[in-house]
Design goal:
- The structure holds 2 protein chains of 2 kinds.
- By secondary structure, chain A is mostly beta strands.
- Chain A contains 3 helices and 11 strands.
- In chain A, strand 6 and strand 7 form a beta hairpin.
- Chain B is mainly beta.
- Chain B folds into 3 domains: 30 residues; 346 residues, Neuraminidase (6 Propeller), CATH 2.120.10.70; 86 residues, Immunoglobulins (Immunoglobulin-like, Sandwich), CATH 2.60.40.10.
- The chains are: A mainly beta, B mainly beta.
- Chains A and B meet through helix 3 and strand 9 of A and strand 29, strand 30 and strand 33 of B.
C-alpha cells in the first residue's frame, strides 16, 4: 500500500505537468498576465493517511487534514517561473483500535512546514508548483487503555514535499489541488511499567484542495 | 414377679440382638440405610410435595410455598442444602416438578395466566443453567388451558421431556425441549383413557412414559427419538387394581414402573426392552397409604422406592435384581410427620433420586417444611476444566505497545461449577464465573516465562485439581 501510494505521488508529480504540455504553449500576448502570479495565502483541506503500514492498520478512521499556508515571492524569471517561500501550519487526526487488544486510540498532530516553492505558470489561469522543506511535528496520542500511557505527546523534525495545480477563476482567487508527502520518525517512551516504545514513521500522504487569495 | 422381670429382661435383650442383627445386615448390604432427616426449609410454608432430581454433582429440589412461589434448593454433598431460592411471580403454581441433566435444571408447573400475560392457566418450563439459583429461560410449554396437574418432567442427555394429561380429551401428551426455549408437543396416544398424571423417565436410549388408565391398569409408551414418535401403549398390568400414578425410572438399559394398588400395596414391574414387555407385578409390601404415590429411582446398586405408610412415616425399599425381590421396607422417619393423606384425593409422595453410589429421599412434613434424607458416598470431586491453552500477544498502539497473556479453556464437565480460579506461578490472581472461559493478563514482561493454573470450584467451596500452561 505504502509503495503504491508513493508511486501515485511520484506519478502525479511528474506526469501532470507533461499531461498539461499542450496548455504550456501560450501566446506572447498572454505573458503579461503571468505577472499576477505572486504571494498568496491559502486555506486547504485534505485527507491524511499514514505512510507506515502498521499505523495505517491501527488508525483506520478519520483523516481530516486542515492547513493554513502562505507563499511569498522570492524571485521571478521570464515572468513565467517563480521561486516562492512556502510555509504552513497544519492539523490532522486519525483514530482506530489497537491491534491485539482492540482498544480505542486516536492521534492528532500539528505540523509546521517551511520550504521553497518553485511555481511554473502554464498559462494565465493555471500554474503548476511543488514545495520542499523541513517540517516540525507535534504529535499527540490518546489511548483508551489502562495498560499503556493514556496521553502522550511528542515532537520532532522531518521533511515534506508537496505538489499541485493552482487555477485562477478570478485575478485574485486561486483554487488549489494538491498532494503531499511527509516523513518523520518518532519514538515514544512510556513511563508505565512493561510498556514498550516503537520508532515509527508518523508522516504520510495528504490529498486535497484549497482556496487561496493573491496578495 | 422375679420370673416376670427376668422374662421381660430377656425379651428386651432378644429384641436388641434382633435389632443389631438386622442393623448389621443392612450395613452389610450397604444399599438401604437412609441417613438422618435433614430439613431443607424451616419456614413452615411449603404446600406441595418435594420433588428431587440428582446428578453426580448433587441434588436439586423444587416445591411450592404458600405465596405460590417456586422454591428450589441445591445440595452438592447431599446434606448441605443451599438457602432456598424463591421465584416470585404471584403465580398459582399447582405443583412443581424438576429434572436435572448435564446442561442444567428444568422445572415445570402450571402458572397463573394473568401474571404471565395470558388469559388461561397453562404449563410453563423454567430452565436454569445452574442448580436453580437463577432461572434463565421461562417459556410456555403448551397453549392449552386444560392441562391437568402435575406437568412432569424427565431428562436424558439430549434434553428434557415434559408430560401431562389433557383434561379435554384425557390423552397423554409430551413436549421435548433441549434447553427450554422451544417445546415440541406430540400426543403419546389418542385412546382418551388416561386417568392419572403421566410420569416420565429418560435413559440413554430414550424416554418412557407411564400412566393409569380408566380401567385402573398401568400403561407405558416408549420413544427413542425424543418424543417425535411414541410406541403404542403397552399394558403393564391387567388386574385393574392400580390406584395411583405409575412412576417410572431407568437403570442401565431397563425401566422400572411402580404403583400403589387399591388396597394400599406397592407393586413394581420391570421392562428390559424399552417397555415392549413387562414382568409380572412384584409386591413391594410397603403398606402404603391409599391416595399417595410410591416413587422410584435407580442407581448403580439397584432400584429404590419410597412411599408414605399408614403411620405417616416415610419408608423405602430396595431391589438389586430389577424388582424380582424387594428388601423389607425401612423407615426413613419415625415421628409420624410425613404429609400425605389416607383419605380423599390429596396428592402426596416421598420422592427419591438415586445417583452413583448415593440416594436422596425428600418429602413434605406436616409442619409445612421440606425434609430430606441422604445416604451414600456423596458426589464425586468436582472435575477440572480441560484444554487450557495460553499465548502471549501484543496490544499494539503503533508508537507504544504492551504484552498480554491470554488463557482459554474448556468448561469443567461437572454440573455444579460456580466458577474458575486462576493462579499465576502458584498464587491466586483472580476468579471468574462459570460462563467465562478465558482470561487476559496485561502488562507482562517481555520473555518472562509464567506458569498459569486454572481450577474449577463450586458454591460449597470445593475445588478441582488444576490444569497448567506455561507462557510464552
Amino acid at each position: 500500500m505504502s509503495s503504491f501510494l508513493k508511486k501515485c505521488f511520484v506519478a502525479t508529480l511528474t506526469a501532470l505537468p507533461l499531461f498539461s504540455a499542450e496548455i504550456w504553449r501560450v501566446d506572447e500576448a498572454e505573458m503579461n498576465a503571468y505577472e499576477s502570479i505572486g504571494s498568496m495565502v491559502e486555506f486547504k483541506m485534505g485527507y491524511f493517511i499514514f505512510g507506515d503500514s502498521t499505523m495505517r492498520k491501527i488508525y483506520d478512521k478519520g483523516g481530516l487534514d486542515i492547513q493554513l499556508s502562505g507563499s511569498f515571492l522570492l524571485k521571478n524569471w521570464f515572468k513565467r517561473y517563480n521561486l516562492e517561500l512556502y510555509s504552513s501550519v497544519e492539523y490532522f487526526e486519525r483514530s482506530g483500535r489497537s491491534i491485539g487488544g482492540d482498544q480505542k486510540t486516536s492521534i492528532w498532530a500539528l505540523p509546521f512546514s517551511l520550504g521553497l516553492k518553485p511555481v511554473f505558470a502554464m498559462n494565465s489561469k493555471t500554474q503548476y508548483y511543488f514545495a520542499l522543506g523541513p517540517r516540525y511535528f507535534y504529535l499527540h496520542q490518546h489511548n483508551h487503555s489502562d495498560y499503556v500511557s493514556k496521553n502522550k505527546g511528542h515532537d520532532g523534525l522531518g521533511v515534506f514535499v508537496n505538489t499541485g495545480f493552482n487555477f485562477n477563476p478570478h485575478r485574485r482567487v486561486i483554487i488549489d489541488l494538491f498532494g503531499e508527502y511527509s516523513f518523520m520518525q518518532l519514538r515514544i517512551h512510556s513511563s508505565k511499567e512493561n510498556v514498550y516504545g516503537k520508532k515509527r514513521q508518523v508522516g504520510g500522504f495528504t490529498f486535497g484542495g484549497g482556496v487561496g487569495y493573491h496578495l | 414377679m422375679k420370673m416376670f422381670k427376668k422374662k421381660k429382661f430377656s425379651c428386651t435383650w432378644a429384641l436388641f440382638i434382633l435389632w443389631l442383627t438386622l442393623g448389621f445386615q443392612r450395613e452389610a448390604l450397604g444399599v438401604l440405610v437412609p441417613g438422618p432427616v435433614i430439613p431443607i426449609t424451616t419456614s413452615g410454608d411449603i404446600l406441595t410435595p418435594v420433588v428431587v432430581s440428582g446428578t453426580a454433582a448433587g441434588f436439586v429440589i423444587t416445591c411450592t410455598d404458600s405465596n405460590m412461589d417456586l422454591v428450589s434448593s441445591f445440595a452438592n454433598d447431599g446434606v448441605t442444602w443451599s438457602t432456598p431460592s424463591l421465584l416470585t411471580f404471584s403465580q398459582l403454581y399447582t405443583g412443581v416438578w424438576v429434572s436435572v441433566n448435564s446442561s442444567g435444571t428444568m422445572a415445570t408447573f402450571i402458572g397463573d395466566p394473568l401474571s404471565m400475560g395470558y388469559s388461561t392457566a397453562a404449563p410453563y418450563g423454567f430452565f436454569s443453567t445452574d442448580q436453580g439459583f437463577m432461572w434463565t429461560t421461562q417459556t410456555r410449554i403448551e397453549m392449552s388451558s386444560t392441562v391437568a396437574t402435575p406437568v412432569v418432567v424427565g431428562s436424558r442427555n439430549t434434553g428434557f421431556m415434559a408430560t401431562w394429561r389433557d383434561t379435554a380429551d384425557n390423552n397423554p401428551y409430551s413436549a421435548f425441549s433441549v434447553h427450554g426455549l422451544l417445546w415440541l408437543k406430540v400426543p403419546i396416544t389418542n385412546t382418551g383413557t388416561v386417568n392419572s398424571a403421566v410420569m416420565v423417565a429418560g435413559s440413554t436410549v430414550g424416554f418412557l412414559t407411564a400412566w393409569q388408565d380408566t380401567s385402573n391398569n398401568a400403561f407405558a409408551s416408549f420413544s427413542s427419538d425424543d418424543g417425535l414418535t411414541w410406541s403404542a401403549p403397552v399394558a403393564i398390568t391387567s388386574t385393574s387394581d392400580v390406584a395411583s400414578d405409575v412412576w417410572v425410572a431407568s437403570r442401565g438399559l431397563g425401566f422400572m414402573a411402580v404403583w400403589v394398588s387399591n388396597v394400599g400395596n406397592a407393586y413394581s414391574s420391570f421392562s428390559s426392552n424399552n417397555g415392549a414387555t413387562w414382568s409380572p407385578p412384584s409386591l413391594i409390601a410397603m403398606n402404603t397409604q391409599i391416595n399417595t404415590d410410591v416413587s422410584v429411582s435407580g442407581n448403580m446398586a439397584g432400584f429404590y422406592v419410597a412411599g408414605i405408610a399408614l403411620d405417616s412415616n416415610a419408608y423405602a425399599s430396595f431391589s438389586s435384581n430389577n424388582g424380582t425381590t424387594w428388601l423389607a421396607p425401612v423407615s426413613i422417619t419415625t415421628d409420624n410427620s410425613v404429609s400425605g393423606s389416607n383419605t380423599g384425593t390429596a396428592f402426596g409422595f416421598v420422592d427419591v433420586s438415586a445417583v452413583g453410589n448415593s440416594y436422596m429421599f425428600t418429602w413434605l412434613d406436616v409442619h409445612g417444611n421440606a425434609q430430606s434424607s441422604f445416604a451414600g458416598s456423596g458426589p464425586p470431586a468436582i472435575l477440572p476444566p480441560a484444554n487450557l491453552t495460553g499465548r502471549q500477544r501484543k496490544n499494539n498502539f503503533g508508537l507504544q505497545y504492551e504484552l498480554f497473556n491470554t488463557l482459554k479453556w474448556n468448561a469443567s464437565p461437572s454440573f455444579n461449577v460456580a466458577g474458575y480460579n486462576i493462579y499465576k506461578n502458584g498464587v491466586l490472581i483472580t476468579s471468574v464465573n462459570r460462563f467465562t472461559l478465558q482470561y487476559k493478563q496485561h502488562n507482562q514482561k517481555k520473555g518472562a516465562e509464567t506458569l498459569y493454573s486454572v481450577t474449577a470450584f463450586d458454591l460449597m467451596g470445593n475445588e478441582s485439581t488444576e490444569i497448567d500452561v506455561i507462557i510464552p
